[in-house]
Amino acid sequence: MTAKSPFSLEFSDPAIEVERAVSELRYGRPVLFGNDTRQLAVLALDAVSPRVFDQFAETVGDSHELLITRQRATRLSLKTNGDVAVPLAGMSFDEASRLSYALEAKMPARVRPAEALLSSTAELARTALLLPAMVAADVTDLQDRFSACCRLHADRLTRLSPARENFQKVVETRVPLKDYGNAQFVVFRGGLAQKDQVAIIVGKPDMTKPVPIRIHSSCITGDLCGSLKCDCGDQLRNGLELLEQAGGGVLLYLDQEGRGTGIGAKMRAYGYQHRGLDTIDADAELGFAEDHRRYEMAVAMLRLLGIAEVVVYTNNPTKIAALKAGGIGVHARTPVLGRVTAENENYLRTKTLRAGHMLDIETLVAAE
Ligand SMILES: Nc1nc2c(ncn2[C@@H]2O[C@H](COP(=O)(O)OP(=O)(O)OP(=O)(O)O)[C@@H](O)[C@H]2O)c(=O)[nH]1
Ligand SMILES: [Zn+2]
After folding, report:
1. Element containing residue 237 per DSSP (H, E)
2. What strands lie across the sheet with 248-254, from one edge to the other?
3. In angstroms, rounded to a whole number, what is the distance separating the alpha carbons of residues 332 and 242?
4. Tens digit of pLDDT for each residue in 311-351?
5. Which residues of 47-74 are buried (b: 16+ CB within 10 A; e: fewer)?
6. Separation between Cα atoms, residue 46 and residue 43, nearest integer Å
7. Which amino acids does the record list as binding Zn(2+) (predicted)?
8. Which of 151, 291, 294, 333 is catalytic?
9. Which residues sit in the known binding site?
10. Who lines ligand 1 at CB under 6 A?
């Protein structure tokens, strides 16, 4: 008789199972992903080595397919309302990579609509911060060939809300800032496959009134290095200044590089922007929708800070909607502006025209 592991209960949690599968995919290993009737063996093309790609093809007898999201398929001029699957038999790793993210790739003639099970593997890739280009094969009758691989039931993906909302405060420490005086840095841990998140409290916000807050998504290029391609660095500093001028407030600095796609995808998208695509089309070229950010962590952090009513500093209507959906009272919205530069003007226009950001772009351009 095998002794029951004392950890079995604790570790059979949907979020832990998803995090394990995501970690395997990031290391370029296959995962068995299925429901009660079908099993797919899946690999993330963005992380797999050419050698494992070839080994996988051989193991599944060349029955593998490539998932191409609706956004990518549309960029490749296929008229479709959903994701599609392309047979990979005879296709090399390089050819599959070109098909999944190169500019001006040609969509093969043989394409079929992707079923829900296959489509949902894109969510695994996005959680792993990998391109949603998944290699998959139906191995329902070949499962023993993948017995060494991590398994994940697809229904786990529908049971992740508790984990996404579950955060703990880890530490709170004073940090003296050159321009904004003493700030409190509060670190939070939790969520699904996420790094720690930080709240920066400047001044002394009056917690009995709606608290001035900014939700800021990380932008290594803009925040850290002053990139001229976006307005993030300006918005970070102007945001902190506005919060301080308001008598104190909280900036939530969220680990959401590249609108939730990760720095790798964002830099790939920059390459396409240098070739003339706007920020949304460049992301679509990689298979992404226009914005993959989620805001459960922002709501959880505010709650842990004892904040239920806010004045939010943003131009992004999605952030306001997410706060309201999470039960935070939004009393007012204040814009946060950055400088318009030759390099970021198109980016700001695209945010306004295609992503609904509340920016009066013509006035901003005229003011420069
Ligand atoms: N994918 C992608 N992400 C970008 C690009 N430029 C900036 N980003 C990311 O876009 C996000 C900008 O976030 P925020 O500063 O919170 O700004 P916002 O959504 O415009 O909203 P507000 O500033 O609050 O009005 C960050 O995640 C950046 O890393 C780009 O060209 N492509
Ligand atoms: Zn930026």
Report:
1. helix 232-245
2. 167-177, 181-190, 197-203, 248-254, 211-217, 309-313, 329-334
3. 14
4. 999 999 999 999 999 999 999 999 998 888 888 888 888 88
5. bbeeebbeebbebbeebbbbbbbbbbbe
6. 9
7. 219, 230, 232
8. 291
9. 214-219, 230, 232, 235, 257-259, 279, 314, 319
10. 216-217, 219, 230, 232, 235, 256-259, 261, 266, 269, 279, 283, 314-316, 319, 336, 351, 357
* pLDDT at residue 10 greater than cutoff 70: no
In contact, 248 and 204? CB cutoff 8 Å = yes
Structural domains for the chain: 8-158 (3.90.870.10), 161-256+293-367 (3.40.50.10990)
Minimum-distance ligand to the CA of 266? 1
Using an 8 Å Cβ cutoff, are 155 and 35 in contact?
Answer: yes
309 beta partners: 329
Q: Which protein residue has the closest C-alpha to ligand 1 atom 1?
A: 258
| 81, 70 Cβ separation under 8 angstroms | yes
33 Cα–ligand 1 center, Å: 32
Residue range 257-309, pLDDT digits in tens: 999 999 999 999 999 999 999 999 999 999 999 999 999 999 999 999 999 99
pTM of the full predicted structure? Answer: 0.94
Q: Give the Å distance between the CA of 317 and the centre of ligand 2.
A: 17
Report how far ligand 2's centroid is from the alpha carbon of 237 (Å). 12
Binding residues for Zn(2+): 219, 230, 232
103 within 8 A of 285, measured Cβ to Cβ: yes
Annotation says 293 is catalytic: yes
Distance CA(197)–CA(256), nearest Å, equals: 10
